[in-house]
Amino acid sequence: MIPRVPRLSSLWVRGTSASSAGATPAVGDGGGPSPSESPTGRTSVQTSRVWRGGVGSARAGSLLAGAVRITAWIGRSHAPWSASGSWVRETAREAIMKKPRAAVGSRCRKRASSQEGREKCARSSTQAKPSAPNGLARRQEEVELQASVSPYHLFRDTAEVTVFRESLLSWYDREKRDLPWRRQAEGEVDPDRRAYAVWVSEVMLQQTQVATVINYYTRWMQKWPTLQDLASASLEEVNQLWAGLGYYSRGRRLLQGARKVVEELGGHMPRTAETLQQLLPGVGRYTAGAIASIAFGQATGVVDGNVVRVLCRVRAIGADPSSTLVSQQLWSLAQQLVDPTRPGDFNQAAMDLGATVCTPQRPLCSQCPLQSLCRARQRVEREQLSASQSLPGSADVEECAPTTGQCQLCTPPTEPWDQSLGVANFPRKASRKSLREECSATCVLEQPRALGGARILLVQRPNSGLLAGLWEFPSVTMEPSEQCQRKALLQELQNWAGPLPATRLQHLGQVVHIFSHIKLIYQVYGLALEGQTPVTDTPPGARWLTREEFHTAAVSTAMKKGSRRATPSSRKKPSPGQQVLDSLFRPHIRTDTPSLKIAAQ
């Protein structure tokens, strides 16, 4: 006879909800499940988080423990009725969610004196906490994802995980790169200063090569060695130091984040990946995980471009890594693999391996500490063997054989194996999005005879949008005809510098600059104010700068395009417009001949 479990559990849940708070039994008592994870699929910590808003959190533990025991009893005695265990979990969840939440203000007042309290109050004031049903939905998605993935792409064997960790960390101890932010973090005993040092480096390294970042990082830390120093800086100072590094919103968000830590969090950095991501502007999942693991030792995995490449090759993941499903799986693998005793070193080791050994092209597989675990390498060897024996290439059908349909982590059948690429067949290259093309007319307005040397006019961009707050030559959006374009540009110049001689406005050529999502074409004009009274007064948002000042101003790379060195594959003569900008970056030699006149000849 089947026990009427739903009725029993329903009565028990209602009884527990109505009972007075008592001692919370340990979830693992009586030979039951361990405290870390119960058969209900929810840890005691997770349950207490859900219950936190109500009164009597001990009841939550009692409720969870009872659900565990009922579920375990069902599993032992009535295995075919495992669905009843799910029903118990849902009933328990509903009872928990019915508990009223205390007012946010009262909780904040009680916790305001502690670091944890400041973080929790800041979270509650800036972002509503996700409801339990959303959390259950995410867990359900993870379960469905795991069910749809072949074990071939996973680490099912604990021994494999151990070998992965030990091999990678041993290699890192021998081969790790000597970088200024690593020295700074390793030698810093103050956790907030250590986290700040890591934060600055991780933000600078986004979409930027290590070699480029080193000098910027060194100058930044010399100028603003602490969060408090940065918080007192101006946006103009930050933009000036950041100029040339690209993606300028990163510097602005660093400044905003430092001010928030100092003004709202008592000068203390959030201590976990979760709170770092929630509280600091511009800090996403990767940056939060990097700071938490390196600075605070939290065992949380990270996934950046280098880690994506390593994981996709080690587990032969050929599907698009930018897709939601594959991205979730990569994060899951990173979390499974991260070493709990050395999480910061492990994450940096994985990134170093991808940057120096498991590179996009021509990877150094013979030097890889993970080659014995690498399914991409195994695939290459099988393909080479098949080719030498004149046999048709075979996919990994025997290892990766989902019960139904195409494996969602395998390379699509439409993309055959390329023998010449080897392990570089993984990961799949994402299709590039076409750049949006925009055109702009800009003018280098110069006063050759100004007191103290020639000066050029720069104006400040708006505080939001592309290149926010940076300085540039006066510019306007391109007009359909050159005549309209010249008229619009002259009007813009006069708004900043007063009446100007229209006849001297010369078209010098064009300069092209590629942003991450925009191809911007500048039509460059020049106008030299000769024989006129020097302009000294300018409205707010405009400056007359010498060439030396121009070098150190917060000017975007697009305006400094002429400083770029020509590559051997690009030897053609630069356009006249390019030459004008080139002249502004050559060492200044005093001459009585205006530079714009030289460039125009």
UniProtKB/TrEMBL annotation:
| Known EC number | 3.2.2.31
Nudix hydrolase domain mapped to chain residues: 435-572
- List where Low complexity composition bias occurs: 15-24
Q: Please share the entry's free-text remark on the cofactor.
A: Binds 1 [4Fe-4S] cluster.
The main enzyme category here is: hydrolase
Instruction: Give the UniProt family note.
Output: Belongs to the Nth/MutY family.
Q: Output this protein's name.
A: Adenine DNA glycosylase
Write down the species.
Equus caballus (Horse)
Recorded name of the encoding gene: MUTYH
